[in-house]
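Note to self: the last two entries modelled the partners one at a time, which told us nothing about the interface. This time every component goes in together.
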Amino acid sequence: MTRRRLPEWLVLLLPAIIVIAAVVLIPLLFSLYSSFTPYKLTRPSTLWKWVGTYNYEKILSDAKFWAAFGRTVLFLTIVLNLELLLGLGIALMMNKVTWGQRTLRTILMFPMMFSPILVGFQFKFIFNDNIGLVNNVLQSMGFNAALPWLVDGKLAMFSIMFAEIWMSTSVFAILILAGLFAMPRDPLEAAKVDGCTPWQSFRHITLPFLMPFIYIAMTIRSLDVARAYDIVQIMTGGGPARRTELLWTLMSRTGYVDARMGLANAMGYVSIILSILFTVYFFRKLSAARAELGMAG
Amino acid sequence: MDRNQAHRNRRRLLKTAHFIGLFLTMLVICVPGLWIVLNSFRPTVEIMAKPPVWVPSFTLDHYRAMFAGAGEGGVPVFSYFRNSLIVSVTSTFIAILIGMSGGYAFARYRFWGKNSYFVGLMLFRAVPGVALSLPLFIVFAKVGIIDTHFGLILAYVAMNVPFTIWLTDGFFRQIPKELHEAAEIDGCTRWQAFWKVEFPVARSGVASAGIFAFLTSWNEFALASQLTRSVGSKTMPVGLLDFTAEFTINWGGMCALAVLMIVPALILTFIVQKHLIAGLTFGGVKG
Amino acid sequence: MTEVTLSNVVKKYGALQAVHGIDLDIQDGEFVVLVGPSGCGKSTTLRMIAGLEDISGGEVSIGGRVVNDLPPRERNISMVFQNYALYPHMTVRENLGFSLKIAKRPGAEITEAVNEAAQILGLDELMDRKPAALSGGQRQRVAMGRAIVRHPDVFLFDEPLSNLDAKLRTQMRVEIKKLHQKVESTIIYVTHDQIEAMTLADRIVLMRDGHIVQVGTPLELFNAPVDTFVATFIGSPPMNLVDGVVEDGQIVLDGGVTLPVPTTAGRLSEGQAIKFGFRADNLMPAGHAVDEDGAVYELDLAVTLTEPLGTETLLFTNMAGVEVQGKMFNPRPVRPGEKMNFRLMLDKCHVFDAQSGHAIRR
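The predicted structure of the combined assembly is written out below.
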């Protein structure tokens, strides 16, 4: 009768913990181990050879790795900031719409539902230098040269960013719009009467209220920044000449094409830490913003 | 008078700018998708035409080829569709059961370190699919569930559980605790109180969490591309690659498959959009 | 036969103790009100009786049966919640019948019980609506209906009227009292509103900081408060309290007013610091007073503020440097600053020890 039982909350959480442990935690531990070996898929025996931090030293002294790493951080910084700004702008515009708002909001959600791989193909098609929509339009308007959108390094990076932003801006717009809907009217009206310009009332009243919503969007986004892998993989595969190589494409090439699992897993850990840093950062911002507005509890 | 006039002009200008901005936004959002749909109905010659043909003609060739199955160079779309459906539906169902139970624990119980558990679970969701696919590939190969529905379902369940917990936690927290207490006083066990009162009240929220999970599985590529190999288990996002050969891409066929992929997603999204936003924001804001 | 007994009931949240060993005997059919300021442990006590909170120590028994570890469903109680807790996905009819359905009673019996409850509370018109389509008062009635359908041994009410506006609250108070007369079950009712407590209770249990301060009928608490807390909590306006000292067998208030010791007071020692208490009803201007029997002390006071209430007017004035309130019956207009001759009914006054706050009475 008095046998100690697990607390109910733990029983309820247990299935989730077990599944995640089995499918995520154990493979991650395995990959952590293998990142200390010269493991190659083609030669299984290499799994048992311990090389210490050799792989990490190797990638840390590899210019190609650092180029990909820097490019990834730069990519994320530009893309996330632009998505936030555009999302904010779209949300503010949508908030002012008086007619057909529901329809517009539904349209706004479309890109969220596209598979990243589909987005990749879609823009690979649209930016195709020969038959793509963009070049066709440009040529019809009188430009003679076909712009090599996915062949030139800089243009390719731009195309990828465009695709990424097209896909993910909606998340920001939708959530910020939800914040605008939830916003009480009184403070804004009080500010108007107190003589605030539209910019001042946006800066001092609207924006602080929206911060938690912005951070929710950021947190949700940071959970799957690596989706960009699908897009890059399809659109350029990291090329031309590694000009669009991101951490994730480099890792998958090292692992699957070169079959150097140990090395790839070491890179994997760098990318995991990067993702986790992003997520933790925004989670903290989120709870700080919440506490500030007294929304906790 | 003049100042009134000036303000009126300014307002008119702003209104025009607002309209143009909105129009451009919607254009950029809609055109790529519509372009895909349009091209799925155009003959290949026309897609490839140079200079471009602007007045489209209409053909069902790509769809006919797609549904004709694995004929000459054809892609076994039916199998891919079926695989996608089996994997997504099953993994969603399981993820919802597990996630709901976890979300309920977060919403209703107080325990030490609750916030850390929550963030910890979310961090597992943050692990990039590519980074996970390498070791998962090896582990699954060892266990012998590579290239099976089961393996992919398992992976998707683990991937979807954290976010399902986030969403359902938000939905359950919107339900006052008294409701469940009232049910207990009315004679329910805790289990009955959940299924007869709390679950029906949160049903639409749980449904939207389900659709979110479904879409994640339906659209996922990084894991599926490594964990599946054969026609028997490949999902549609992976199948899309079948249209690319070494140097050529069958654009028309690809567009047709893309339409097949996107239509169910759009319909589902349309159904739950309202609840989805509510769940995301509530769970996040009132954390 | 459903008396409820609490013996030495304790509730702890970790190191924090919310309820400190409460003893209480509630008779069958009695209407008991737990009242006190927020955070006094009254709701926690009620929830322990309901089985919604674990009992950290002591014993709760219902109908002679110890229920400490029984889940709510095995206690045969029903409860009305502050926020009503109606099931939003069910119609009024389904809400009312839910408990019987869970108990797997036959359909005919459910229909009969639901209709009976609906009739008692006047819900017939609303049976097929969902809670969202009801007004606050209607929801309140459905919540009560849900409670009576099961014919429970004990009814528990957790601040059921606090979300209603003032007018509805008065109305529902009467309905609850009528309901009690009709069903004759034991009722335990929690509120922070002393007027609700006074008007509804057979017996009031006044709590503070997890302790019971006083148990008694409304009039006992009103007329013989055991300490200054009860004296100021029960009654509106609260009892006036003026600091003073016992000197030469008389009471000298701090402002210099000297009074004879009221006949109700117990033994006072020379030099003892006291608080002298009296209600507004017992400080009346001459010519506007009622009930002039017994010892009277007369004094002149300047009125600073008036609050006309219709049949009477509250007069604010200063006695020994403390603001006190008196009452004027058959009121006439009074100017602020006007000096009036007041009559203090000494036999109705109270003396409390200044330090402990306990009443000193014979």
